[in-house]
Write a structure and sequence with these properties.
The protein is an alpha/beta fold and 564 residues long. The chain has 17 helices and 21 strands. The chain is globular and about 70 Å long.
Length: 564
């Protein structure tokens, strides 16, 4: 079973009650070790025509038959047990209890579904939004972009050539560059449209996230103290995160959208030519079919609560040791619905959006007692470094003077999620191991004492010299660890959501395996793919939330007959 979260995540400050619910869900399902490679390869040799087997190797187009060879077994645990709504076998006509004729059905009411339903309704379309849970889902009160009126208000301009270069490096050039270019061209227009629906139109109340802490005048394009460029593109919405789902539901209802909660989408309906003509949902009285004149929008989120899909699609070492999400309906329904009618998805392994459990760049060591990374790097990068360590965990280490020393690492990108005392408290909490000597601390950590003490001594020498010779951590930010008592906290990466999905074009049309649009089918948000690989690029701050907004806005433009 994945361990409970330790430390403090930025989502602790950006999301509300969903976190407590997510933590409870984490405890609900034990992890499962991956199947032995030899066993799966043996099974593959007798599989059907979609499988090729060779000595010691296997390929398959059926994810359920795939195996991930590993050098160290790690747990592959989901965020909890979600109720899967997708129905694989055709739902018979005599099982349909009601039929409705509409223009558009939006499946899922997270930020992407909200934007899609609203944009379609404002084009005069008859829109129904169905949501699996009893209310919508909204994890964070932030949005971003590069060229909105809000960014103009704060005097922000960006080197978009550098931005897109970072984007392509982050996804190892696996992402569709046309999607990134479309984002750069259109994100401001979409954000302006979206923000225009809130009752608060005072732009001063939408601060840059990096300027929302102790650096209110920070206007650099990126935080230059970070090892990689951490872009100053995120903005805070002036609403509590826990209230945004209901606020959006009210805006949608006022725009004429019919919302049906507790009504999951189960199966797509197609005609003989493969066009999507509708969707079957499950209401209180059974299955109902919506015939859609314009199209079906999948905005059903990821598959964090579906352990089988995580085992199939994600590298075992890429699945986090703990999850941080309250989106209990995210069981991969929309992704499976699309695949069932021939849609293409991101190649495997699919990415997961990861954070370290502790966001401060405290010194890190692995179970061998050795430092392994430059600690001040964007969250996704640091989380991946943690996942790569033996056992997929590490320890972050501070000393008894951390309350005074934390000023050395207090920067725009570290100050914006909470006051100093929160981060100090997390590093010295009851979850931390505590000792009066480094040797005693190493014993509590169960790491080699000689190696651990040598690591700390080496760090202190470099801190005194103001130069990290090993990993190029900013020398001016290095704080010595020399004042008892000493603290070490075990840390895994936190999983926020999966980030792989159905391939789409710039019009958000879902593509088939020949990369041709499937008529009548659209996808928005993290059920859609094409942009991320290995992990989510946190240094492109708020890309995901802004992408949700842009994709929903784009779908409304397309179905309303306007340019995408």
């Amino acid at each position: 079973m994945p361990e409970a979260r330790r430390g403090v995540s930025r989502r602790d400050f950006l999301s509300g009650a969903a976190l407590a619910a997510g933590a409870a869900a984490v405890a609900g399902l034990a992890g499962c070790a991956p199947q032995a490679a030899g066993e799966a390869a043996g099974e593959a040799s007798t599989a059907g025509g979609d499988t090729m087997a060779a000595t010691g190797a296997m390929q398959t187009t059926d994810p359920s038959k795939a195996v991930w060879p590993v050098v160290e077994e790690v747990e592959v645990g989901s965020a909890g047990e979600g109720e899967i709504a997708f129905v694989a076998e055709p739902i018979a006509a005599d099982e349909i209890t009601a039929t409705h004729d509409v223009d558009v059905v939006v499946c899922g009411l997270g930020p992407a579904g909200d934007a899609a339903a609203l944009a379609c309704a404002e084009q005069g379309l008859k829109v129904v939004a169905v949501e699996k849970q009893n209310r919508g889902n909204y994890n964070s009160a932030t949005i971003g972009g590069t060229n909105s009126k809000l960014h103009e208000h704060w005097g922000m301009t960006y080197d978009t050539d550098a931005w897109i270069a970072d984007a392509m490096v982050d996804n190892a050039f696996q992402g569709d560059m046309t999607l990134f270019k479309h984002f750069l061209e259109k994100n401001g227009e979409a954000v302006d449209w979206y923000i225009g629906h809130f009752d608060n139109q005072n732009l001063d109340d939408y601060p840059l996230t990096f300027a929302a802490g102790d650096f209110p005048d920070f206007r650099d394009e990126w935080d230059k103290t970070a090892l990689s460029r951490s872009w100053n593109t995120s903005l805070n919405l002036p609403y509590p995160p826990g209230e945004l789902a209901d606020i959006l539901a009210g805006i949608l209802t006022e725009a004429g959208v019919e919302i049906r909660f507790n009504t999951p989408a189960c199966q797509l309906v197609t005609d003989d030519a493969g066009k999507v003509t509708g969707v079957i949902v499950k209401g209180e009285g059974g299955y109902e079919q919506y015939n859609c004149a314009k199209g079906v929008v999948l905005a059903t989120g990821g598959y964090e609560f579906n352990q089988q899909m995580l085992k199939e699609r994600c590298r075992p070492r890429g699945v986090p040791g703990a999850w941080l999400t309250g989106a209990f309906g995210n069981t991969g329904d929309g992704l499976q619905m699309g695949i069932a009618i021939g849609a293409a998805e991101d190649e495997f392994p699919q990415p997961i959006m990861l954070d370290p459990e502790q966001l401060m760049p405290y010194l890190r060591v692995n179970k061998l007692g050795k430092r392994f990374t430059p600690e001040y790097e964007p969250y996704g990068h640091l989380a991946m470094a943690i996942q790569a360590q033996p056992g997929t965990y590490d320890f972050y280490v501070v000393d008894g003077a951390i309350a005074e020393k934390i000023d050395k690492i207090w920067t725009p990108s570290s100050s914006c999620y909470g006051p100093k005392e929160v981060w100090v408290g997390a590093a010295t909490s009851e979850n931390a191991l505590k000792a009066d000597t480094l040797e005693e601390l190493a014993e509590l950590m169960e790491v080699p004492a000689d190696e651990f003490v040598a690591t700390i001594n080496r760090w202190n020498e470099m801190a005194a010299a103001g130069k990290d010779e090993d990993f190029n951590f900013p020398g001016e930010m290095m704080m010595t660890i020399d004042t008892p008592p000493f603290y070490a906290t075990k840390e895994h990466a936190d999983g926020l959501c999966t980030a792989g999905g159905l391939l789409v074009d710039t019009a958000c049309r879902v593509l088939d395996k020949e990369r041709q649009p499937i008529e009548g089918l659209f996808a928005a948000g993290i059920v859609s793919g094409g942009m991320f690989y290995n992990t989510y690029p946190h240094n492109l701050n708020c890309l995901s939330h802004t992408r949700n907004c842009l994709m929903g806005y784009t779908i409304g433009q397309v179905l309303g007959g306007k340019e995408a």
